[in-house]
Amino acid sequence: MVGAGTDRTKRAIGGGPAIILVRPQLAVNIGMCARAMANFGLDDLRLVNPKAGWPRVDEYREVAYSAAAGATHLLDAARVFDSVEAAVGDLDYLYASTARERGQMKEVLTPAAGMAATAPSGQKRGVLFGPERTGLDNDEVALADAILTFPANPAYASLNLAQAVLLIGYEWFKATHGDVAPAPIVLRGKALRDTFILRFLAVDRFIRGSLLVALAYGIWRFDGSRTALRQVLNSYLPAFEPLAYKFGVDLEDTSAVHLVQQAFLARHSTLLLVALGVLAYGIVELVEGYGLWFKKRWGEYVAVVVTSLFVPLEIHEIMVVVSWLRVSALIINLFAVAYILWTKRLFGFRGGRAQFEAERRNDSLLELEHAATEGDQNPVTERAAGSREVVAEASGGARPVL
Fold first, then answer.
1. DSSP secondary structure of 182-251
2. Are the beta carbons of 88 and 143 closer than 8 angstroms?
3. What's the burial of 103, exposed, middle or buried (CB within 10 Å: 0-12/13-18/19+)?
4. What is the C-alpha separation between 314 and 333, in angstroms, rounded?
5. How far is the C-alpha of 69 from the C-alpha of 66, rounded, in Å?
6. Looking at residues 273-284, what average pLDDT do you find?
């Protein structure tokens, strides 16, 4: 099972301190620790004498992998050691995660302070975590250079193993990559124009899909009422023929009447297949419209593939009978294929999805910067800023102007 926030198309972050689980008891906790590590880019999982061994070969293997929620690569790459000394032998600096200092006169740090020192050190560091029930023993804590302890409710300071790993990972990620929220994708300028075009195409697909579904229903009802409809046609056609002759039209020779007469002669199975085919095409158009409206990448792929498949048929229809409606539909479809393929970089075109995401975020940041620049030039904004400067000067200039 893969979590909702998992995106395999984006670059995975790696590094950080090694996570050493000493005598872990539960397979599910190992899986949850792997998930916590993957959340914040930690990629070195080490196990010391895990209960029942590792990798698990019993029914709990599936439990561990399910708990990892997509971080199974860490479980597969986990290294197993017979002793703590062997597990930490290649590390330059070691932390022990424990709620108590144990009287060993070691430096006691919070995870935030410890990871802030780890990130720029350039050293190979690791964090020891003890068994779920008992934690690390004194001899294992003695191997560490410093102790990490979590500020918590003193009456209930016991953390789940995966929770402790998660907090360490979070503090390392924050120290390494900052804690600024990702820049939002703002619908301005190019992004707004792109959304407008995609939704225009989506409306076109919704209209087509609805008409095709209605047509499929009409064909199905026609098949069940052919006898009555034939009687209606035979009764009213002669009555309209004199009027049609006055306008130079022979109703018997019109394509519409010929099409209806051929439908009367078609077999039930033929009409049923036609109705199903039209219905399927209508559903595809509606799905395509949904994907385009909500800017789903799969919807863009569906739009390009399906539209491209029907372009030759549309060209053939225009060669048979030219009409403004058919020509307009062909132009819209050709534009849709070219626009989506070019701007969305589908099928690896122009760098593929990775380049598309980078371009979109960069454009959003530029739009925000442009908007901020315009705001700075606004007279009202400038007067407000001037007022703040006066207040700052009056108070001794101790506070910066924001």
1. PPP----HHHHHHHHHHHHHHHHHHHHHHHHHHHHHHHHHHHHTHHHHHHHHHHHHHHHHHHHHHTT--G
2. yes
3. exposed
4. 10
5. 5
6. 91
Domain parsing of the chain, residue ranges: 18-177, 189-350
Average pLDDT over residues 95-118: 86
Q: If you average pLDDT over every residue of the chain, what do you get?
A: 81
For position 156, what pLDDT does the model report?
Answer: 85
CB atoms within 10 A of CB 78: 19
- pTM of the predicted model as reported, rounded to 2 decimal places: 0.51
**How does DSSP classify residue 74?**
H
* Per-residue pLDDT, 141: 92
Picking from 74-88, 153-167, 233-247, which range would have the lowest pLDDT averaged per residue?
A: 233-247
Round to whole Å and give the CA distance between 188 and 375: 15
Alpha helices in 225-349 (DSSP H): 226-246, 255-265, 268-293, 297-320, 324-344
**Angle formed at CA 187 by CA 186 and CA 188, multiple of 5 degrees:** 100
The percentage of residues in the chain with a pLDDT greater than 70, rounded to a whole number, is 81
Cα(348)–Cα(310) distance, rounded to whole angstroms?
A: 23
Cα of 109 vs its chain's centroid, Å: 37
pLDDT higher for 360 or 241? 241
Tracing tokens 């789903």 back to the chain, one arrives at 296
Q: Given a cut of 50, is residue 134 above it in pLDDT? A: yes
SS3 16: coil
Q: Which CATH number does the domain 18-177 belong to among 3.40.190.10, 3.40.50.2300, 1.10.3210.10, 3.40.1280.10?
A: 3.40.1280.10
Cis previous bond, 154, omega within 30: no
CB count, 10 Å around CB of 72? 17
CA distance 216 to 211: 9
| Lowest-confidence region among 182-191, 278-287, 288-297 | 182-191
Spatial contact of 48 and 42, defined as CB atoms under 8 Å apart: no
